[in-house]
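Continuing the batch. This is chain 6 of the set; chains 1 through 5 are on the previous pages. Same settings as before, nothing changed between runs. Recording input and output for traceability.
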Amino acid sequence: MALTLDSGFLAALQGGTTKLARLVTITRTDGTVYRYTDHDRDLVYSAQTYSATGFVAVSNISRSLRGEPQTADLDVVFFAGGITFADVSAGLFRKCTVRVDVVNWGNLAQTGPTIFYGQSSSIVVEGKQRATFSLAGRLNAVLNTLGEVYSPECRARLGDSRCGVDIESFKTTGTVKAVDNNRKFTVEFAVNPDNQYYALGEILWTSGNNNGLRMEVLDQYAVTSPDDQIILALNMPETVQVGDTFTMYAGCDQRPTTCTTKFNNKVNYRGEDFLSGPDKIRDVPRFEAAEESGGSAVNKTGYGRLVPGPILRGR
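Output for chain 6:
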């Protein structure tokens, strides 16, 4: 579909000498907005200031004439006061929205076109200096599955409106007692939980270098009373130290038994736990022919019989 351009902007393009700049707007899912431009000075466009830091650049923008989804890369250099390593590592930029506009910096009253609008699909972090966001255009949603599918596991997220569990009732506090690395360490809880009670849950740091950051918990199990081993899904961005404190929330494996015994919440279970699996679906009657000789004990009547199992067809 052709772009409709502001008449003044179009005239500037046809004037021979162009004064174009890109404006990049990054919006996190929590509503925090970052604005940057590739111009050599800050630009004020539509009453918003776009910073000319030079630490953000959009590249590899693609658009298919057949209507296939756009893609692009967002290259980010971490810096204080902007996009930081800690925020990216904490998952704050997951599924962030990125919009790229082109403007005439010689006359910002003109309306320029939007050349990309999409969402981050993956983020690759290179050390603690930079990251590359892979972006998928909004047309990508057309190719994705819409709605939900039947599943034996629950489709709700623990503590959300469909689940209904008060997650604050399933948390405890603790202190780090020994550290293997930023992903694996030993803690002492304020309570004595069962093994894996907090597996698939979440840790919220309340002191130390990672204060205020969250991370998914991969596993939790007792080592020596009263200590437990914690393994996180990913490394924390900053060093975990002995004495760091945290709040840990219970996890859910989305299974009906866990919903019933751990959270007493089966009434809100959002899965089809009696749904037949692939093996059960294939387990249908098939015809077994009688043996022609020998009078086998399997079938002495000379007639065939139906037995459970998959249907086999020969050639």
